[in-house]
Design a protein that fits this description.
By secondary structure, the protein is α+β, with helices and mostly antiparallel strands. It is 43% helix and 28% strand. Strand 9, helix 5 and strand 10 form a beta-alpha-beta unit.
Length: 338
């Protein structure tokens, strides 16, 4: 009877699917026939419901229902919350209490001994002394029953573990304090080094700036000096017209110094070429007047008998000094005393 009703359920299900499809396909072409197919589908559904009820009434169906009910029998733990997290006592022990099927086998994955009494059970487990927590799996299985598993985490709340953790925390704090001191000292030293490095970089920058300034000054002087054409003093004195209003550079010996009577900020310095072939060392008739401003005279003190090099503009002005008339003149821009 169980098999016949099962076959009837299958045939009814197929008929429902077929008649439903035929109804939707042919309802626009032939509405009357479509209504009959819908009726057949409803009849098939009624047969399916009746057959399913009949199956449940057979001994085989009742047995399957009982087995299915047994598979879903829950496991109840009376002292473990839903999240499965608990604390041990001061001796690192915890007792799991609960109830289940009377014929069920009960086991904890650490192998702890189980006490059973008419479906109720107790399992006392010991948490390892050096572990902060231990995870256990409780398994319950009864005949014709699907095994139920519960995960339980027991946190070590023993006196010994807490004392050890306190000691370790104290040691860790000491280590952390030492590390903080080292970090602070290192940070201080790094700050000092950074400051030294900054000062050094600043000095290097200043030196580079000074070098660049000196190079720029030297380059400027070189550009300026390149304007002055070297000329012997004798050539200039003999033919000053050739160098009139031209930049020249020449060297001679000072034989006479006088302040310009018309300009108190200017000096007349008479220089003559050195002649190694004369006993006096001075060539007569080749004297030249150089006009040097007072600031240059202060910066470069000049005395009679000094040998100087002057750079400036050549002129053909006639100047009378100390009873002698000189026909060459130089307006001095730079002077060097040898």
């Amino acid at each position: 009877m169980y098999e016949i009703l099962g076959l009837l359920c299958l045939v009814s299900l197929i008929c429902i699917v077929v008649f439903t499809i035929m109804y939707f396909v042919g309802r626009r072409k032939n509405a009357k026939r479509a209504k009959k197919r819908a009726l057949y589908a409803w009849i098939s559904l009624a047969v399916l419901i009746f057959s399913a009820w009949g199956i449940n009434q057979t001994p085989e169906g009742k047995q399957e229902s009982a087995v299915e009910e047994a598979k879903n029998t829950p496991l109840h733990l009376t002292n473990v919350p839903s999240d499965g997290k608990v604390k041990s006592n001061s001796k690192a022990e915890f007792t799991i209490k609960g109830r289940t099927n009377k014929k069920a086998s009960i086991s904890l994955d650490d192998g702890s001994r189980v006490k059973k009494d008419n479906g109720k059970f107790e399992i006392t487990t010991n948490v390892p002394y050096d572990e902060s927590s231990t995870k256990y799996t409780l398994t319950v299985k009864a005949p014709k029953m699907k095994a139920s598993n519960r995960s339980i985490t027991v946190y070590n709340n023993s006196t010994g573990f807490k004392a050890r953790m306190k000691k370790e925390n104290s040691q860790q704090k000491n280590i952390q304090r030492k590390e903080n001191i080292k970090k602070a000292e290192k940070a201080k030293q790094d700050s000092i080094n950074a400051k030294k490095k900054s000062i050094k970089a600043k000095k290097e920058s200043q030196r580079e700036s000074q070098k660049a300034a000196k190079k720029a000054t030297a380059a400027r002087k070189n550009r300026l000096n390149s304007r002055y054409k070297p000329v012997s003093l004798a050539s200039f004195a003999e033919n000053p017209i050739k160098y009139d209003e031209k930049f020249i550079s020449t060297t001679g010996t000072v034989i006479y110094i006088q302040k310009n009577p018309d300009d108190n900020n200017m000096y007349y310095v008479v220089i003559v070429p050195t002649d190694e072939y004369t006993t006096s060392g001075m060539s007569d008739g080749h004297g030249t007047v150089t006009e040097i401003d007072i600031d240059t005279m202060k910066a470069h003190p000049i005395h009679e008998g000094d040998t100087i090099t002057v750079k400036g503009s050549g002129l053909t002005d006639t100047v009378t000094l100390n009873g002698k008339t000189l026909k060459s003149d130089i307006i001095v821009d730079y002077v060097k005393v040898h």
